[in-house]
Amino acid sequence: MAQAAESEVALSRPAAATAAAIDVEVHSGFESLPEPLAQFFAAAGAANFFQSIPWYRTMLRTAGPEGDKPRIYAATRGGRPLAALVARERKHAGKLKTHMLLAPSRGANASLFAPLVATEDGRAGLFAIAAAIARSSPPFHVLRFDCLDPSAPEFAVFAAAFRAAHMPVQAFFNFHNYYDDVSGQDLGQYLAHRPPELKQDVERAARLLARGDRARFAVIDGGPELEAALIDYALVDLQSWKEPEFYADCTPELIRAAAAAGALRLGLLHLDGALAAAQIWLVAGGRATIWRHHYAQKFAKHRPGAALTFAMFRHALASGDLREIDFGPGDEPFKGLWLSRRRERAGLIAFNPRTAKGLAAAARHFGGRAGAVLAPTLRAAIGRWSKD
């Protein structure tokens, strides 16, 4: 059991017959998780960096307003983890000043978010977590979770769990994510599947990188060079055409966390002795995400972004252990040249009809359909609440 300073624990009542004897604990930090739960997160993080404790901890600390608080829900049976949900609590959100529960980060910072669900009894665990959230005191008015995979089995379970807790739920489109299966491919095999439009950029990049007197490429994954590389990355970012990061501390903190977890690949390209481009790749479990990519505008005519992307692909594929590369959130056409497949990421939003603000937020969200959407949920909820 976590210490009181780091964990708030509440035992759930059974959400349904299938969830009997399931306990739901609510932790406010990762520092003192019970060992089985820490191992549950470690296994998930080894397969996907976006489900690792370093990722969650960094996002919860740096990618939201100061007043947000971590909420780590864990469903266990006899001490064995069945499901876990990492979220942030936000009070007084928006015009209605609602009490919200949100995913740790929005789409700009994640290619994927999902609850952790065990193979055995994970569905029952997720239903128990949803029931505990619905009974929270003070109550949550609105729940929102971004960056979900709508094709994953847990997506439907996640939505069903909140509906079972008598909260109206709606899925929505979040963003597109370009990706490709690169299993067993070397650089030549990968390039053979690229469109003709990319060929000129690739050939130009190869020629530029071959000129050691002009171009210098490096990949930093940690160690004594990391802090200098952080400064280099920030300098390129300042010279790029992109808007500054909304939460300035998020990127440097994530770089450090990813390096400590062995997931960082920070690529830097120098041209004629000056920084020209920088990219952050996050790699874990055979998957690589191109998380950030910048180039200095003064080098635009040399196409430094394409040159560094080519160099990073060449470096990544040389390891031979990647199964998938994705380009993070976004529909920019150039991403489709490097990675040919595109998939959707979705969000879920849910409302608590047991509260006035939850009803008001639902009415605003559903508009003219509010009556039809909310009536069945309210009838079921009133019947359930009358028995509680």
Question: Any overview of this molecule?
Answer:
There is one protein chain. This protein is α+β, with helices and mostly antiparallel strands. The chain has two domains: 7-177 and 344-385, Gcn5-related N-acetyltransferase (GNAT) (Aminopeptidase); 183-322, Gcn5-related N-acetyltransferase (GNAT) (Aminopeptidase). Helices cover 37% and strands 28% of the residues. Strands 1, 2, 3, 4, 5, 6, 7, 8, 9, 10, 11, 12, 13 and 14 form a 14-stranded mixed β-sheet that branches. β11 and β12 (287-295) form a beta hairpin.
Which secondary structure elements does this structure contain, and how are they paired or packed?
Elements: E1 7-8, E2 23-27, H1 35-47, H2 53-62, E3 69-77, E4 80-93, E5 98-102, E6 116-117, H3 122-134, E7 142-148, H4 153-164, E8 169-181, H5 187-192, H6 196-210, E9 215-220, H7 226-239, H8 250-260, E10 264-271, E11 274-284, E12 287-295, H9 304-318, E13 324-329, H10 333-338, E14 341-351, H11 356-366, H12 370-385
Parallel strand pairs: 5-7, 12-13
Antiparallel strand pairs: 1-2, 2-3, 3-4, 4-5, 4-6, 7-14, 8-13, 8-14, 9-10, 10-11, 11-12
Helix pairs in contact: 2-8, 3-4, 6-9, 11-12
